Amino acid sequence: MKLLDLEKQEEVEAEIVEVKDSDFKLIKKTKQFEFDWIKEKKNHVFKIIALNDERAKPEIHGLLSVIDVREEYRIHINLIEISNDNKSPNKKIDNVAGCLIAFAIQIAFENNYNGFTSLVPKSELINLYVNKYGFSQFGRQLGIQGREAIRIIQKYQ
Fold first, then answer.
1. How many domains does the chain have?
2. How far apart, in whole angstroms, are the C-alpha atoms of residue 56 and residue 23?
3. What residues does 43 pair with on adjacent strands?
4. What's the whole-model pTM score?
5. What is the CATH number of the domain that holds 63?
6. Which of 71, 79, 118 is nearest to 97 (CA)?
7. Boundaries of domain holding 65
8. DSSP-derived pairing of the beta strands 2-5 and 93-94
9. Over its length of 157 residues, how does the chain's per-residue pLDDT go in tens digits?
């Protein structure tokens, strides 16, 4: 995964790993995230961190909660959030959301779902997901699969 350090204008290698139980307290304590991520413990929760971060606890740039909806052959993004430091207009790191979405899509391909990934966005974010990431709208849900899904993986991985 490649993040973009906007201050240095250079790519930064990143890794997406599963959130451990001990991480949930840290996430709440940092005040970098608005959502209560402890509520997502029942799902698969992942964090994205920069690999060059030499601190004992590397900074979490974003979080992703996914649900495997096997009976519908899709991965559902239940919640995605970027840290407050990486939100516009003064964000430090870019491509966080794209990397997390690409990761969810990759899981959908690994599960033989043809990359089928869905989410239910806030209404003000629908155009962002459609225009920037190539999702299609199905009622309140958005979905991506096939060629569009491959395009996102190629762009952000």
1. 1
2. 13
3. none
4. 0.94
5. 3.40.630.30
6. 79
7. 2-156
8. antiparallel
9. 899 989 889 999 999 999 999 899 889 998 999 999 999 999 999 999 988 766 556 789 999 999 999 999 999 999 999 999 999 888 999 999 999 999 999 999 999 999 999 999 988 899 999 999 999 999 889 999 999 999 999 999 8
